[in-house]
Amino acid sequence: MNATRIKKKLQKQWRWWKRRSLALGLSSLVIVMVWGSMYLPDKVQSLMSTKPPVAIETLQFYQQNEAMDGTLEDVNFRKELNKTKVNEVIVRHSYVCGEEERALGKLNTDEIYNLLNEHPSWKGQFSGQGKVVLNETILDLSPTCKQRAYMSLDKDGNLSLFDGPPEQDKVIKTFFQLDISSMESSLPEDALRHLYDGIRIQDMDEYNSVLSTFSDYAREG
């Protein structure tokens, strides 16, 4: 009798533990599903968020390559260059003031490409009679300009850059017209006389300084 009672009691406890285990299992499953529903969107969003930077980097890569390839003129020049074997080559240095050229003689296509690779800022073009001109822009005064340049007024009252003293009237570049009456009423007499006689320009600092000083007296329009 006692054995039968003990057996029934054990079976009853087993059924209770079985139901409890099942309930705990279902609860755990629900918790995992809830956690998954909260975590997975963040994970997916995290994965998706990596796409824009990749796209941006790809775009930057192509933009950099396009910049390296150069402008359409560069591409056309290289296409034309590939059709030739030997060309007379000139290097032209274009300064803020002045221009200088030097002849390199006859070079083949590979030698011209080597020069362009060594000097990425140079731009090639074909001139008359199949000559190749390699242009370099330099933000400075040419050596000749440093020895001869003046800033003064031309006959129309424009601030201008001269090759040599202003009385020789060799204008290289005209900047803007000056308001003479406003300038004469504001500036010291010595400064005006210096301008009329010609201000010697020997480097870019002097060039920019004179432009900055007299731009205050530029006529509008």
UniProtKB/TrEMBL annotation:
The keyword Cell cycle does not apply. Residues 140-215 form the Bypass of forespore C C-terminal domain. Keywords: Membrane, Transmembrane, Transmembrane helix. The chain crosses the membrane at residues 21-40. It comes from the Bacteria. This is BofC C-terminal domain-containing protein. The keyword Membrane applies. InterPro entries: BofC_C, BofC_C_sf.
